Amino acid sequence: MSSTTRTKNSTAQDRELDLYFKQQVTQVSRHNEVERILNAPKLDPFSILLVPDDCDEKQIKNAYKKISILIHPDKATHPKARDAFEKLKAAQDELLNEKQRKWLQNMLNDARQLLKSESPTELASKDFEVAVRNKFRELLIELEWNRRKKARIAQEQQLAEAGKKEAEAKKLTEQKNLQKEWEDTRDSRVNSWRSFQNNASSKTKKRLKTKTSTNYTQDPDRPYIKRKL
Q1: Going by C-beta distance under 8 Å and a sequence separation of 6 or more, which residues neighbour residue 95?
Q2: Is the pTM of this model over 0.85?
Q3: What is the rounded distance in angstroms from the CA atom of residue 111 to the CA atom of residue 117?
C-alpha cells in the first residue's frame, strides 16, 4: 500500500472519529440542556429561557429558538426531552404574554426591594442578583401556595353546596314520590274504608237482631233478673 493511500485512509478515519466525537459532544450538550430545563423552577420562566429580567419579545423568541433546536425530541436522545421541550414552550408563552411578563418583572423588583430592606449590608453584585432570584422564587411559591389554598377552599365549598343541593333535591323527590303514592292509593283506601264500614254495619245489625229475638224469663221473687229461655 502506497503512502498516499495510507494517508487518505488515515484522513478518512480521522474525519469519522471527528464526526463521531462531535455527535457525542452534541448529544451530551443536548442531554445537559434537557436536565437544566427539567431542574429549572417552573415558576421562573426567565431562568428556563436564560433571558434577562428586562427582556423583550425579540429576546424571548430568539432564546426559545436557540434552545428548542438543541433539545427538540426529534434530535435529543434524552428520555424526557419532550417534557423539557413542553416546559420551554410554556415558559415562552408565559413571557410573550405582555401582561404576565410585566407582572413577573414587578415581582422581581419587589424581591429586590425586600432584600435591600432585609439585608443590613449591601451584597456583592453577583451574590445580590442570586439572592434576588431566590427571593423572587420564594414570593412566587408563596403566591402559588395561597392560590392553591384558596382554590381548594373554594372547591370544598362548592362540593358542600352541591351536596346540600343534592340532599334537598333528594328530599323533594321523596316528598313528591310519597305524595304521588298517596294520590295513587286514594281509591284503594276509600274502598277499604267503605268495605270496613259496611262490614261493621252488618255486624251491628246482626247483633241487634239477635238481641231483639232473644226471649227472657223473670224470676217472680227477683223481677230485676232476666234469664234467657
Answers
A1: 45, 46, 49, 51, 55, 60, 101, 104
A2: no
A3: 10
Homologous superfamily of domain range 8-96: DnaJ domain (1.10.287.110)
For residue 200, the one-letter residue type is A
Sequence spans of domains, the chain: 8-96
What CA–CA distance (Å, rounded) separates 30 from 15?
A: 22
Q: Residue 138 in contact with residue 118, Cβ under 8 Å?
A: no
Q: Decide: 62 and 108 in contact? Cβ < 8 Å.
A: no
Separation between Cα atoms, residue 97 and residue 20, nearest integer Å:
41
The C-alpha cell of 58 is what? 425579540
pLDDT digit string (tens) for 59-85?
999 999 999 988 989 888 899 999 999
pLDDT tens-digit map of 143-165? 888 888 888 888 888 888 888 88
DSSP state of 53: T
